[in-house]
Amino acid sequence: MGSKENGKPSRHNGFFPSLPNRSRTPPRNPPMVPLASLLAYELKNEIVENPLLRCGLALQPRKGEDFALVKTDCQRIPGDGSSTFAVFGIFDGHNGSAAAIYTKENLLNDVMSALSPGLKRDDWLAALPRALVAGFVKTDKEFQAKEQTSGTTVTFVVIDGWTITVACVGDSRCVLDSQGVVTDLTVDHRLDDNEEERERVRAAGGEVGRLSIVGGAEIGPLRVWPGGLCLSRSIGDMDVGEFIVPVPHVKQIKLSTNGGRLIIASDGVWDALTSEKAAKCCRGLLQPEVAAKHIIKETLRTRGLRDDTTCIVVDLLPPTYVEPPPPVIKKKSTIYRMFHWKQKQPPPSQPAYDEIPVMEELFEEGSAMLSERLGPGASVNGGNGMFLCAICQCDIEANDGISVHAGAFFASKSRPLDGPFLCRSCKWKQEAMEGKQPSTRGGASK
């Protein structure tokens, strides 16, 4: 999957004034590490404390189609305070605000409904990427049933301890700034930036091109026709082809206990600032709300207010972090300064970090094919001899469910007996997204 450049790693110390610089910059794309290995590392080194979580929100509306979700008191097991996790989301609507509002209100519940109750924490985290895919598709399907034509991008972040899971469709973005290293945790689904998505849309029956004007000249960004959307993935947009899919890119990482800062923002920010510049402009600002406001201010200074502009900043602080007291500024007279001038000394050298990297990548997948995203195995048993649809979680008879892997009877890759299974309407949606069913939808703009 294509993505925007992150820029070169900065040698800046980040936003924690008490944290030292690394002696060397860690790799930007660390190798995947099994979750079980990291949990064993934690137990061995007695790293069990959760981070201190602080967040701030800032927004500058123009069209009134941006919405944000900040929820820090979610619980995997209702009533169990030890199962608390946090959720943050940016929903950038287009062609109206209905899709953004509906997604903000329903996506979390749809994701949670795809997770079996009572899972242990490590099992819950391992199942979360698949549940995010199911939740995104379910939210899209149920919103389209309302026959409203708006759509929305989504960047959805789940934080459980030091584990961060990010799912996205569209061009809002989540950026991690940790120990001076800036990493994109999302992928932009803009047709201009993503050749793989252009090929997928064409293969599914869509046309990709720029707006044509009199004389045959082409202007503006690449768009999908019919509809004219410049994104290849979103929630909603029922008046555009089914090849505009709600299947999210999902990335899951485990952050080191040195902490880090997340910047989650709509494209109003990213059209003006690179990931590196957004991270750099708010380093040294300890309060996340102040940092978010400063990013908005820098965005407006750079590009002006051309779109709704929304930013959430989330700080994951080490458990031992102690906020320094505000500096005491004493005014000195000009004569005092003249006779007591002293050359500024360089700061004392700091010890290097230990060998724990900035982050460990646990999972990343961006395929738009549900057969690749929902994983192997049967659907969860719903009781009474029934199964649950892997998307909408409705009961289906064991002999009536349609495998997500089912295709033409003689197709070499068709595995009609392998789960998970879908109800008939969800199977139709899967086939429509993959270009196997004629689209019943037909213009939107973003």
Automatic annotation (TrEMBL):
Residues making up the signal peptide according to the UniProt record: none
Query: Which is one GO molecular function term here?
Result: protein serine/threonine phosphatase activity
Entry's InterPro entries?
PP2C, PPM-type-like_dom_sf, PPM-type_phosphatase-like_dom
Superkingdom as given in the UniProt entry: Eukaryota
Spans of biased composition, class Low complexity? 17-26
Q: Where is this region: Disordered?
A: 1-30
Every PPM-type phosphatase domain range: 44-316
**UniProt protein name:** PPM-type phosphatase domain-containing protein
GO BP annotations of the record are: regulation of intracellular signal transduction
Which PANTHER family does the protein's record reference? PROTEIN PHOSPHATASE
User: Which SMART domains does the UniProt record give?
Assistant: PP2C_SIG, PP2Cc
